[in-house]
Amino acid sequence: MYNYTNFDKEFVTERAEQFRDQVKRRIDGSLTEDEFRPLRLMNGLYLLLHAYMLRVAIPYGTLNGTQMRTLADVADRWDKGYVHFSTRQNVQFHWPKLQDVPDILGALARVDMHAIQTSGSCIRSVTADHFAGVAADESEDPRPTAELVRQWSTDHPEFAFLPRKFKFAVTGSENDRAVTKFHDIGLKLVRNETGAPGYEVSVGGGLGRTPMIGRVVREFLPRADLLPYMEAILQVYNQIGRRDNKYKARIKITLHENGIEDIRRRVEESFALQRVRFDGVDQDIFARIHADFEPPAYKHASIDAYAEARDSDPLFRSFTDTNVHPHKNSDFAIVTVSLKAHGATPGDASSSQMRILADIAEKWSHDELRVSHEQNIILPDVHKGDLPAVYKELRAAGLATANIGLISDVIACPGMDYCDLATARSINVAQGIAIRFDELKLEHDIGNLKLKISGCINACGHHHVGHIGILGLEKSGVESYQITLGGDGTEQAAIGKIIGPGFKADEIVPAIETLVLEYLELREDSSETFIDTFRRLGPIPFKAALYPPKEKNHAA
Amino acid sequence: MPLENPIPSISQRVTELNNRHRDSDASVVLRDVLGDALFGPIALVSSFGAEAVVLLHMVSEIDKATPIIFIDTEMLFPQTLAYQRKLAEDFGLSDVRRITPSREAVFLRDPDNLMHLADKNSCCALRKTEPLEDALAGFDVWISGRKRFQGGVRAEMALFESEDDKRIKVNPLAHWTREDVADYIAANNLPRHPLVAKGYPSIGCEPCTTPVSSGEDERAGRWRDEEKTECGIHFMNDDKQTPDANVIVNDNGFASDDWNRGYSSFEDIEAAPESQSAALAIDLPNDFDAVKLLPWIDQIDLVRIEFPVFSDGRGFSLAQRLRLLGYHGRLRAKGHLLADQYAMARRSGFDEVEIDQALAARQPEPQWLARADWQARNYQHRFQQSA
After folding, report:
1. Topology classification of domain B10-208
2. In this structure, is residue A552 part of a structural domain?
3. Is B231 marked active-site?
């Protein structure tokens, strides 16, 4: 993984000190609250329903054992002993005190971490495929590009006060696990006909109250043109993005209102001016970054223990069936550790669990961990021969839930329990569904099903791209849950469609059960997943199951 | 513990006091103020200048232990310091507090005592306004010797004023005329400031005070040839005071604007029949299309881009675009920018920032200088910099 240079280290240390000074200047009146707000947001500090929330960046979801352990230490010392991993591969502390935040940032800076640009109207912490660099289906590692974008976007003088937030995602695989089509800029690593490396650039994707699929603005952008082209897109957006209405301020609306041809023309015009500023030094830096991501020396050892454990331990077999993904090196495995134990809060981890994950990573996964946007933790480099030992440790820590990709592997936003924007609770719905399907013992039979829950229209729980999406709203003082079907955040990007009237809080779990049981009836065989069945049949049979014709209660 | 009868707000009390004393003589006002326990701690602020002797004498007749705040800017005439000691002794004033600017602030902002040359407002802020504000911290009421006949914003001054609803300011001599002052001094045989006889009817700091010739306004010798008429300590409640010249911020800190040839709008330049040869400065809104400036780009000396609010970042992109299009002249960001944005402004191509006095007071020079190292730790620059 990327090794911080002295430049990076000095930067994050200085930045933490700057924030300490800003807090001081807020208190002495030099900064008004209006002036302080964007400065604290740029340093990851939100004011939520009950308290401040500090969102710490985990760029493209990659961290090492020491960093994970430091997050645990921060949780113990300055918070309530647990953290929440977010849908943007970051980590959130929900109870820090304002006066402690400079010390927290200082502690993080010592292990090359920060909270820079995890919030605010600026370029946000960049995300990437959580299996980057190790997935068998990957054509190119997106992490060097993500790191380049991280560095370029950090404290960018021109783009710190954009019309609205701006999110990047990068993928190097045909199987888009980074939801690139729903980001302000989605980059896909591609090669042109001559084999030269470059990017397919999508712009204007997004979820929120107006979900849109990103449009390709450049089919092939040569690798060396990346930064000037990004400068150009951001410059155009900064100048013509709407600032009169925050709900129309994202670049997806700029693109929608001006049309892709107009945006492309403006971007190319700006790019022509920007290009001359980059004479190749950026590519030298890119090469140095790239070298940091060279694969580790993979050991050659027997994987017999793996086969034996699968034969003898049905629980281990079940775990490896769901939670292990093919690695580039067939002797190795990518292990996803579920933070979705049935009944737990999706994405939460206790400090002791984090320390165990840090230990395991150091011992068995080349000291590397990943955070997925699906709010799970990944051990990317585990030798299959070590898998039984890893599983044993995970199981002892309550971290061996075998449900990755299943219905209980829910993405849920914090909802009304924490968030001041939320209009309904989401965590309890996630817990209710997980517990119900655990009781039914059906979820392995159901197989791959992405269920995503948002507690308000801002869609932090990505419900638009859930195979089943649930949107919690408030209708005349009562929580009401709207179901969408058919969403997909992958390369087959699709926005889920509302299936019908909403359900009350006590009706939503039975409604999901009805839908899923209907799918089991409808599917051709067990290899046809929910989304495939939906694509084959459309919404009508599901709608009929959810909203049966009313019987006449009062016969004439 | 909640009070049964809530104390009226300061502005309510001020209205009431002005009503009560509308016909009172200065000494009556002073006796009432100094004798009323309800007023809380009171201080007389005195310059020990040309006419200060009047109030000092009146106060000494009522209560010699009244705290007298004397702001020694460390730039005063030596005669003023001598006069201060003499009056304190003659009148038996037992609590004269000589207030000097904070060592640390002077060290940071004006180590060579030269700030008055470049930026008089900041100098007054450093040496008078800020120390006075600190010195007044424990007082509920302060007494000032300003008079309406001194003109300017003082012409409409009331006897009692509310200072941002946090303190009462009393001007017992508000309605006195020049003759009243002269008569009082003569009648009581009071000693005059030694410089009065040398043609100084109003006395401030040595570098910024000159004698006045006959027929001139008596404050004409203060900050001569400048728009400035008040040091700043009396602005705190003078809403009608027009803001002073804006402050220019560059890598060396605060400065005053050296551009005095005015600004054109883009429409003015477009309408001009032929290209301008004289020095040319242009004001641009932040949504301006930079390309439109291309025909004039080599003729403009100064471009000033408006920042209506600090959170609107369009100006940064406009600056960068102008630079990319080949503008090499002076580039200034004007309006609401934070000290925290200084480095961003410089990196985006601006040379300097123009802020108003209020912002300069709230975010003083050291906060801007803290970001004057804008070239350090610049990720973007590394990608563009050839070895």
Report:
1. Rossmann fold (3.40.50)
2. no
3. yes
